[in-house]
Amino acid sequence: MVSVIPIEVVGMAVPVPGEAPLMLLREPEGARRWLAIMIGYGEAEALVRAREQIEQPRPGTIELLGDVLAAFGQGLAAVELTEVRDGIFYADLVLASGTRVSARPSDAVALGLRQGAPIRVAEEVLDVASVQLEVEQETEGPATDVLDAEAEVERFRAELEDLRPEDFDDL
């Protein structure tokens, strides 16, 4: 049995104009490990719409997939990022019936956000592909939490700027 833990979607980043966007995920508590997964622009757009629950006049692919699951009486129980192999991230849609369907992480996360399903990551994925950021928090409270989250994203972006494609060769 693979150990999975919750992960939250922080947002999107484009470290260098013209480069592929990154989906930013982080551990909600504890060590505060972050994942940055490179995705396409279309996937980034779908992810932002799902995160913000923006409705469209006609369903996009993510909404269509949710509608198809509902039409077959299936709910989405969870999304799990399961592994990193040769620098490529893999995910599963875990249906209410227990059936697992392989999916791209960007699509799986967008569907999970749309459906309100928990998003989880295998501990092994975090061990192999995460960046850990230390954040000092002086006071508690919602205003400080927002500022700290923004500071975390800025620190993460600074770390991303120093990364090169070769840094991911060993994943």
TrEMBL record:
PROSITE patterns assigned to the protein according to its UniProt record, in alphabetical order: BFN
Annotated ranges, domain BFN: 4-133
PANTHER family for this protein: VON HIPPEL-LINDAU DISEASE TUMOR SUPPRESSOR, VON HIPPEL-LINDAU PROTEIN
The species this protein was found in: Amycolatopsis rifamycinica
Cross-referenced InterPro entries: BFN_sf, Bi_nuclease_dom
UniProt-recorded name of the protein: BFN domain-containing protein
Gene Ontology molecular functions: nuclease activity
SUPFAM superfamilies with a match to the protein in the record: Hypothetical protein TM0160
